[in-house]
Amino acid sequence: MTRIVAYAQGTDLPASQAFYTEVLGLEVVMREPVLGLASPVNPSTQVIIPPAGMEDPAPSFGLDLGDPAAVDAAHAAALERGLRVVYPIRDEPWGVRRFFVEDPGGTIINVLAHLS
Question: Is 114 exposed, middle or buried (0-12, 13-18, 19+ CB in 10 A)?
Answer without folding.
Answer: middle
